[in-house]
Design goal:
Shape: globular
Order of helices and strands: HEEEEHEHEHEHHHHEHEH
Structural class: alpha/beta
CATH architecture: 3-Layer(aba) Sandwich
Helix content: 25-40%
CATH superfamily: Alpha/Beta hydrolase fold, catalytic domain
Strand content: 15-25%
Strand order of the largest sheet: 1-2-3-5-4-6-7-8-9
Amino acid sequence: MSRKPPEQYGTCMVRPDDFDAFWDSVLKQADQIPLNATVERVPLRSTPEVDVYDVRYDSLDGVRIAGWYCLPTKRTGRLPALLHVPGYISDPPIPKPSARAGYAAFSAAPRGKVRSNAQYNPGYPGLLTHNMVDRNTYVYRGFYIDAVRAFDFLLSREEVDPERIGVTGSSQGGGLTLAVSALRPSKVRAAAAGAPYLVGFMDAIELTHTYPYQEISDYLRLYPERKPAVTQTLAYFDGIHFGPRITCPILVNIGLQDNVCPPETGYATFKTIASKDKALHPYDGHGHDAGRIHHQPIIDAFFKKHLNP
């Protein structure tokens, strides 16, 4: 298809009238589940500067979720915190750099990731299209809540200042950053979303033919009659539609030559974000890295300003 300038593209996605009601219902169900978190220090992973903990907690559908939790060994008083949410294929790293910078840092591994796949493992490829014709069983219903529950874990910690918690990630992590910010709008203090994935689903499959979005095209080639149901389901999980619920200060960075998460979808998402304190950083000459080498200092300064480590 012919490409307009990405900032002029818009979206074909339509926000369901009951979008907010759907997610408020899911959150209500999730909030009734105790976290039952276990926190175990891992000496092999810890260093003189950072204590590393293996964390497990409960989420929707009885799935047990894993994460890495890092704390600076030298600390006084309550700490600001950062939730790191992962990309699509990569497994979450141990967030030692954030702890060294003065944050309580949690890196979540939602269902299907290596340490959280004992009960639920649709695989890669496979995750994006698992149960894609039903909003109540689609994989990202639980996946998004797994990330929200990771944020709730930080809220539950005595060493964390609940008024200074941020969330960050790139690609799928960018999409999860949007979702967590939208689903805990009164709690997220600041957010940074890079190269957001899971936004403009049906736009993206027309704009790019790379994976992971190609998984949707492959699925619809096999089941063309399911396209209306797929479109309807994905509307409830589209980051574009979470935008009106996001009110915290937020950064979004995109690569203008990104063939994985088309920049058109990044622009469309940014336009819907309700926050009065928001900034979009487009990087020409960059693909799915979204200018990270240039943008990381901006992210660091942003969180330093809003979370004050």
